[in-house]
Amino acid sequence: MDERARRWRLVLGGAAEGTLQGPLDGSDADMDGALSALYERDGGLGASAPKVARWLGDIREYFPSTVVHVMQKDAIERLNLSRLLLEPEMLEAVEPDVHLVGTLLSLNRVMPDKARESARAVVRKVVADLESRLAQRTRAAVTGALDRSARTHRPRRPSDIDWNRTIRANLKNYLPDRRTVVPSRLVGYGRRERAVQREVVLCIDQSASMAASVVYASVFGAVLASMRSLKTSLVVFDTAVVDLTDQLHDPVEVLFGTQLGGGTDINRAIAYGQSLITRPSDTIFLLISDLYEGGVREEMLRRVAAMTAAGVQVIVLLALSDEGAPQYDHDNAAALAHLGVPAFACTPDAFPELMAAAIERRSYDQGPMVPARTTP
């Protein structure tokens, strides 16, 4: 079978048997069997733990990890395999990823003791992978932004001079005959102080649709909390609010302190977040939510307006994930936009630049971010 026919046969499944030059054999037949078990109605994967465990092992052998993650997510959703994930042997067979962590967190309250340590091992591996990928970039972006945000009129080295601001400050000294600006006043980047320079409040919606965002936000919260120049607080909410700031040294503990699902009271969460702010003009308030409010909407908007009037930078992330913007409340997004509060989805890779832009109070690059539509 030529390569093109082979690929089409794997895409089309058993319905194409006999129409594309002949049957599959060897590893191709095994790959086809793994795909059929999940995506064909009579595939036979079912909800048998031994069968599913073998299938999980097969897909890890035949497909790259990116495909494995998609197939695992589809299996959990299509075949309702969540309960099987409470078995330790099943957890040992899966390929850990952000979506699997979200599923495990949603089962946290019903998880038996025998599965809890296996679940923690899965979550710990995903968190370690995310930290290795994102922590250094986040610290570098935030540190650079804090350095640039500190201005001085006596820069010590040429590399400390902010040439754009220096030129703007000296335009009155332009010499037309020489076509040059005489820089009588220098504007430079100051050296970052050791004291706390910014307060960051992460306020995270625990509704089921925000599972991936909860995972990423918890990891970023731990990274930010490790920086002495930032005072970082993290709260999660549904209809109640839980302050997990004292667990930020361990993002795994933060994640197991969440309870995905349930209602949403954004107003109550914002009220609690407000109480954590001591320096409004130096505070970045990140609300990570799809904005479906189950509390008092008008009061929520009044609180946001009060924070922005006091100098707090309020940013709404409809999602902090790789999937883009989820379903969200368009009316609330529009009302927040009217208050000057941006609402958009942000990928994890774009989050360090978002934090840098917030620290420097500059506009956000919409390239890796998806702005909210303010009409349905």
UniProtKB/TrEMBL annotation:
Family matches, as InterPro entries: LolB, Uncharacterised_CoxE, vWFA_dom_sf
The organism of origin for this protein: Planotetraspora thailandica
Protein known as: VWA domain-containing protein
PANTHER family assigned: OUTER MEMBRANE LOLAB LIPOPROTEIN INSERTION APPARATUS, OUTER-MEMBRANE LIPOPROTEIN LOLB
Database matches in CDD domains: VWA_YIEM_type
